[in-house]
Write a structure and sequence with these properties.
alpha/beta, Rossmann fold, 2 domains, about 40% helix, Glycosyltransferase
Length: about 375
Amino acid sequence: MGGRQTVRAVAGDLHTVRVASVPAGHVYVRHCSDLQGADGVVRLRDPRPNGAPSTSQRWWPPVMLAPRWIASHHEDFDIFHLHFGFDAQGPERLRELVCALRRHGKPFVYTVHDLRNPHQRDPAPHEAALDVLIPAADALVTLTPGAAAVIGRRWGREAQVLPHPHVVDFARLAEPRPVRDRFTVGIHAKSLRPNMAVLPVARAVAGAVAELPDAELLVDVHRDVAEPGGAAYSPTLMEGLAGLARRTPLRVRVHDYFSDAELYDYLSRLDLSVLPYAFGTHSGWLEACYDLGTAVAAPSCGFYAEQRPCLTYGHTQDDGVDVPSLRAAVVAAYRDRCAPRATVEARRRERADLAAAHDVLYRGTLA
């Protein structure tokens, strides 16, 4: 890191506000910045974790969460803003982080992306983390009114609602969608996150697709799910998908993680992306689909329907998949063939507004 800056930002002045964002390199955080740098906000780069090569873009585990990093670098930033990356931090470690920020007089902002962590089957660890972070924050942000209402009920705190920025870059966002001769529904199992109920969703979708002319279901999985020895190996899932493929117009594709460009190619070639989530809150995947003009069928859990226009179907961890509503969503997408899509102009305006809102939030918190 370069030489220390000693200018302290004050609400209403033109000084730079230096923000320690965790993580700074995540696409959400990067796209909350003004494109022209007109917001006066500078976010520190993510420190490289131990063991990460010098050319790596990896930000996890976040070095900034360590109290010793706060002690060594508190003069380098004005505000600490937490987004993601604290999954492995227990309540005591998070209390130590908050105490370190208080000790050095650093305001703490927290954006509540997840009320339920999609990577943790047991909700208790994340709830314990929220019980530390939300009461301790000097300011709170979230993405939807529904999430803000939960925060108000559970913790008695007000959270400012700011939308998720674009995920896809503007050049790709402006490209026309490819022409296709089949109606294609996609379910991406990724590495089988704990919140995914892939087989029940695939069975319902496959049944609907089988009744539609010129329609197919494409299920993608990462190699670590499909191959013995993989970290997420699931023979039950693979055998179930193979059985469905023998009876319905379903194709299974096994591959490595997509690059960003490969992911956007994949999404652009889908007419409908079905999110197989049994629990969760918000979704960057949904935003990417909105950028590319791909329809989404989102579950009723969480607040996906408040985030962007999408089809919805009944799906919760307690009640499972509501098959009729999911089949109806597939049929609606097949019938309409015209999903809402973000425009470059609208996303540019939204990004500028987001940057300005964060600037005001930071300066107000410093005041």
